[in-house]
Amino acid sequence: MEYKVLYRKYRPDCFKNIIGQDYTIKMLQNAIIHNQISHAYLFTGPRGTGKTSTAKVFAKTINCQHIENGEACGKCPSCLSFDSSPDIIEIDAASNNGVDDIRELINNVKIAPTEGKYKIYIIDEVHMMTSSAFNALLLTLEEPPSHAIFIMATTNVESVPITILSRCQRFNFRKFSMEDLKKQISYVCEQENIEIDEEAIEEIAYLSEGGMRDALSLLDQLSSNHEKITVDKILANYGSISTKFIRDLIQNIEENNVDAIENAIKDLQNSSSDYKIFIKKLIQELSHVAVQLKQNPKARRLDYSQVKAIIFELNECMNKININVNPYLLVELILLDHLAGSKTSPSIKVVEKTEKLEKEAEKPVETFVEKEEKLVSQEEYSDEVKTESQQEEFMKYFQELKKIRINNCFAGAKKDVLMKYQKIWNELKHSLDLKPEILSIISDSSIVASSSDYCILTSKLSSTVNLVNSKLEDLSREVEPSFSEHMHFICLAEEEWLNEKQIYVNHLKNGEKYTIIFEETIDDIKPKEQSDLELVATNVFSRDKIELI
Q1: Rounded distance, CA 195 to CA 181, Å?
Q2: Cβ contacts of 94-101, under 8 Å, gap ≥ 24
Q3: Structure pTM?
Q4: Which of 18, 369, 424, 490 has the fewest CB neighbours in a 10 Å radius?
Q5: What is the H or E stretch that residue 302 is in?
Q6: Residue 446 pairs with which residues in a beta bridge?
Q7: What are phi and psi of 139, to 5 degrees?
Q8: CB of 532 within 8 A of CB of 471?
Q9: Residues 478-518: tens digit of each pLDDT
Q10: Are the CB atoms for 208 and 175 separated by under 8 Å?
């Protein structure tokens, strides 16, 4: 009998077997039950989250002859012949992305279904289609034959034109939770008689990064030698790091054990562990510590502001790794910098000074020296408060600047300009003339909207978003020769960009126009004593961690 890999063997064949996407499944079933099936759907989300599987189940259910409460019966001729049905056409847009392929599809759309009620086109990785192919598909999506339904799936919705998005019902697929992954891995192991310990299940779930296909593929590979799967085997073969190792490292940070930290980093380096997995796991565990400290500030020996600073700096480290020889050295320096006796963050200083003032106030009699010390402490505390006030002033200015730049970009947004600038941006990624920091920014971000002199950037990394917005002028100056314009950049997190884009689409639908706003209108609220780098950086990092060059 032909062997079938686990992720294919356990691919869901009905709605009730699809896990982790409850909202989407409920909406699709309701559409079937109430006979409100749209002509076009777009499934978006990370890889391995069930987009294609859901599309197939949806298509199967739509054509079922005996639908029961929004579920396919699995027994009628349509259900039994689903895999070979001529009415279900699956297209991989990665290899069939040209305008000729789409024209052939459009010609076939006019032909009525052979067996089922609908002719259903499942287009996977739709973002890989060319602009010409999208344009050819546009009219058919606008007014398709009554018997045709399009279900498109993509891992990169940013590359799908707005004109296509506005003609589809969009469903966002989220990554699977650790609990969902562990539950499914346990179920498959039970069905396949695979021996595995609980720690190994958790490690597989972690390494899959929210993707069920990745989790089952990893399980498939580990079970191939028919031995019990242990966490040690996974750690040894996949460069992963145990949770115990991470927790011990954090404990050594709390105990200021420099030798133990150094030895731990050396062990990681010598074992060829994946530094990206190490940093991600360390950040994840530190985030749990941060939550503990918020619930009870005395729960750990670390301070919340210290933990927050370490997390932000480790995020920043992920950007710098691309241009550094030894990533472990960077991580070690970050951890050592936050040991007791190293520089203390402003928030810690403020707490210490406040406590000192409270104790001084309780004394019934003060000597002249004590009074002088108290006055000095009060002045230092005042300076800290003043710094926080400056940060608030800047963030107010920065938020206004961001609104203006987003507005001005949309006011003059043009598709041909966007394509031109995206090409320039991709070429700059290979430039040898740019500063390493600017090159890192360009490598980790992309242009998603542009006019002749305004560009909106986005990045999956929050650290890159913060870095770009702290170096807006430097970035403009460095890339100006390539763009032949003085560009005005602003960088948004992916979720923020999606919100802004939806607002833009709504404005277009309502016939509302954007008008240019001059940046000089907010000069009166721009802080005079801080550089652009300080403006953003002091809001994200501890001030004493910032070094201006």
Answers
A1: 17
A2: 94/124, 94/125, 94/128, 97/128, 97/129, 97/130, 97/133, 98/130, 98/132, 98/133, 99/130, 99/132, 99/133, 99/135, 99/136, 101/133
A3: 0.55
A4: 369
A5: none
A6: 458
A7: -65, -40
A8: yes
A9: 888 888 888 999 999 888 898 888 888 888 888 888 888 88
A10: no
Could you tell me if 336 and 342 are in contact, meaning their C-beta atoms sit under 8 angstroms apart? Answer: yes
State residue 491's pLDDT score: 93
Structure tokens at 48: 């391995």
Which distant-in-sequence residues (6+ apart) come within 8 Å of 232 by Cβ?
none
Nearest in space to 479 (alpha carbons), one of 533, 433, 448, 447:
433
The residue written with tokens 């060319």 in the block is: 130
Q: Which of 429, 428, 441, 443 is nearest to 473 (CA)?
A: 441
C-alpha Rg value of the chain to the nearest Å: 28
- Name the amino acid, one letter, at 275: Y
Q: CA dihedral in degrees (379, 381, 384, 390; nearest 10)? A: -70
Ramachandran class of 295: left when φ > 0, alpha when ψ lies in -120 to 50, beta otherwise: alpha
What pLDDT score does 505 carry?
86
Gap between the Cα atoms of 189 and 229, Å rounded: 10
Shortest CA distance to 336 belongs to which of 263, 283, 274, 278? 263
What one-character-per-residue DSSP string does 304-316 give?
Answer: HHHHHHHHHHHHH
> Which residues, in sequence order, are CB contacts of 142 under 8 Å at separation 6+?
167
Q: Which residue has the tokens 């777009």?
A: 42
Through-space distance between the first and last CA atoms of the chain, rounded to whole angstroms? 66
List helix spans (H) across 51-194: 51-62, 77-80, 99-109, 131-142, 162-165, 178-192
Q: What is the DSSP string of 350-406?
A: HHHHHHHHHHHHH-S---HHHHHHHHHHHHHHHHHHHHHHHHHHHHHHHHHHHHHHH
Provide the pLDDT for residue 224.
Answer: 81
| Residue 498 structure tokens | 């999606």
Q: Give CA–CA dist 216/48, Å, rounded.
A: 10
Beta bridge partners of 137: none
Q: Are 354 and 272 in contact (CB under 8 A)?
A: no
**Helix/strand/coil for 46:** coil
Task: Report helix, strand or coil for 427.
Answer: helix
Instruction: Tell which residue, 476, 477, 417, 401, has the closest CA to residue 449.
Output: 417
| CA torsion through residues 37, 39, 45, 47, sign | positive
